[in-house]
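Support request, please re-run this one:
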Amino acid sequence: MNTNIYAVLTPLALGFIVLEILICWYYKKKYITFQEAVANFGTALGNQTMNVLVAAGVYVVYGYLWQQYRLIESLEMNSFTFILLLLGIDFIFYWVHRWGHHVNIMWAAHSPHHSAEEMNFFVALRASVTQRLFSFLFFWPLTLIGFHPVDIYAMTGLHLFISFLHHTELIPKLWRWIEYIFTTPSHHRVHHGINFAYLDKNFGEFLIIWDRLFHTYAEEEEKVVYGMYNPPNTWNPISINFHYYQLLWKDAMAAPRWTDKLKIWFMPLGWRPQGLPPKPALQEVTAQNQVRFITTMFLGAKPYLLIHILTGIALMMMVIDPQSPWTTVERWIGSFLLWHMIINWSGIMESKSWLYPSELIRLITTCIFLILISDQGISHPMNILWLALSFLSALWASLFFRNYFPLN
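Re-run finished. Output below.
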């Protein structure tokens, strides 16, 4: 495929984010908080690098199945097959999504998305590194029908963009017939709720009909409380992505029986190995008793982060865009630098003592990398720009992030 669907959809998603920010600012809606928005956005930038690996896996594995075992010789994309493929992906995803809330290892992959404590387009970006891999373990039957792997990959991207549009509090309930057939922001707000009445409801991404058919539907009535029980309580993307895996690993290591060390990964949420105490009963989190996660940032954090979010977007696009001049090795290096960047963002927002040396190392290595792979000399305007930005950023970090004195 000549075009990475995510490289096409990313600018659209960014446009909707900017629009939501402007509407919230104009109407003074406090639906977006700075720290969580940065953490969500950073997690998204890093996770986009996984789509390159997923695409490669899809083309190899799905390509083999399509060539060897497809039932229909050719399924070209037209209006009918487009809708059929969308419905097929939506139906499979309903079950994958539902299992993702009931099976430990699948919840470990999905839970980072639910760890957000608000609802906006930034939350839609807070996906898991491993969820994309898990999802593509289940779409392979579509290749047997005859859908080409390229079309499956592209449609899953479009399907993901549809779900992106559900993550907002700006859109109220819509007309009854729309609410009855299609998944709307109201339905998806319920899905993200940790109110006991909303737990494990509304798994549909395109059609809400699946939830009505399989008895997982709930109407939005009481105020939705967002988040998850036993949250990671950090802005670090590594911890966000692997928080529940760590909890399962600890239980697996503590389990006396070897069979339980393996079994725990595939059991329902709440299951405990024999010999370990049962999990305490959940105490419902409500709008009245919820304590939102918030940290004290270093002085000067906001303007610094806003500037480097722009450089992060540029770096991500060079990694994921098929039209990028970067080689495979350069994309890998760029991916590592991007992850270093978003990890450091969490250090800035949490006033970590390790942040200052880590940020200096990142600035130096990123600048050297970008200049070395450039076809132009160091005097080229773009390279001068990188040098200037790196120098000013290092100066800023030295002024505000050097000592461990967190300030508001």
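The mean pLDDT is 92. The longest helix spans residues 34-69.
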